[in-house]
Amino acid sequence: MKSAVETLNPTRVRLSIEVPFEELKDSLDAAYKKINQQVTVKGFRKGKIPARVIDQRFGRGAVLEEAVNDALPKFYTEAVNEGELNVLGQPEVDITELKDGELLAFTAEVDVRPEIEIPDYSGIEVTVDALEVTDEEVEKAVQQLRERFASTNPVERAAAEGDVVTIDLEAKVDGEVLEDGVAAGVSYTIGSGELLDGIDEAVTGLEAGGEATFTSQLKGGSAEGKDAEVTVKVTAVAARELPELDDDFAQMASEFDTLEELKADSRKRLETTKQYDQATQAQERVLEELLKLAEVPIPEKLLADEVQTRKHNLEHHQLGQMGLDLEKYLEIQGKTLEEFENETSEQAIKGIKTQFILDELVNKEKLNVNQEELTEHLMRRAASSGMSPDQFAQAVVEGGQVPMLVGEVARGKALAVVVEAAKVVDTNGEIVNLEDDEDEAAETAEAATEAKADDAKAEEKSEA
Known about the structure:
Region (Disordered): 433-464
Number of strands: 11
Number of helices: 15
Radius of gyration: 33 Å
Helix content: 40-55%
Oligomer: single chain
Enzyme class: isomerase
Function: Involved in protein export. Acts as a chaperone by maintaining the newly synthesized protein in an open conformation. Functions as a peptidyl-prolyl cis-trans isomerase.
GO molecular function, one term: peptidyl-prolyl cis-trans isomerase activity
Family: Belongs to the FKBP-type PPIase family. Tig subfamily.
Structural class: alpha+beta
Strand content: 15-25%
């Protein structure tokens, strides 16, 4: 076999491959054997039909076609390895010559990873939020804990904001009560925004036994999106009572003896959270600067496939789980289809560039992933997926995704190298010394390569 490589552009090549006919012998034998098992010829046992009879009855062309289809992947792979090519996706193959008994010639066009020159990243400088926890933030955290320990007591008065009311609901559309529009004994905290638009105004001021009617757009069910006439009846009113903020509360709500110790722990927890956020912010901003410095050609077909994959995952997985379609999602986001497609393309380009650059850094810095690093990353991914480590590991192995996880960790280590070399300062001008968290960097790098529907979830929650 002879092969030659022609570079069409920085991300695509054409392989020209010539195969002497004798090298097709194994594939021809396999073709005759396969056809033998598929056809019947009178006078011959199944599987024992001579090759010359198959040629006469079914044509030599059918045998050659079967043999070539069998042989092409093998010779293509040999040519790729011979040319030391890092190919992406499937090739477009064209048979240019097929002479029976003499020669098979074909071309294969395929995308390849571009050669990337890693820029000098030692001069990268980014600014992140200062690590400051205010007294107001501590008080808010303690107040949220206090809310969790609130108690309710029935009252004989009109309902007010913050009260917990027990209500019955009935929704009508065009004068007809919906089958799924009736509910009884629903507990609702006035002002929480957890039910229908307009319900807070309707129940405020009502005593037990009172009712009101209001109009609201339904957020789900058989009449989703339609305006409904909703009748709400209050059957009970209860006032929420918060515990006193004192040492007794600290002992009830935590392992601490005093309120001051509880507040100190809340401050420490907030600092830890902000340290994590600060590190993530630094990694994201360093990555952004690195992407600006590097010239990375993007393979057109790879980009088109990536955009299509992102759109498919969003429409058929993420949005489907939230009960949304693309049209509703765009409405919530306030975007046109064109804006969405442009953003998806930009995200895909960023993801491809991130992977190419960090993979090149992995090779340049000779970064390896050991079993301990892979296990730690697997456990974090399992926790975020809601699966046990054993379940997640089994799914990864069965899905052949171990190399993907190894790549995530390796890219995280590459990003950590760049962050370590960068100058990170906070908004107060102070130098930020980041802890070496390669797994956290792996999550940051991976986030840059994925499309998510988190904004849709947040918007849907705020409108529910």
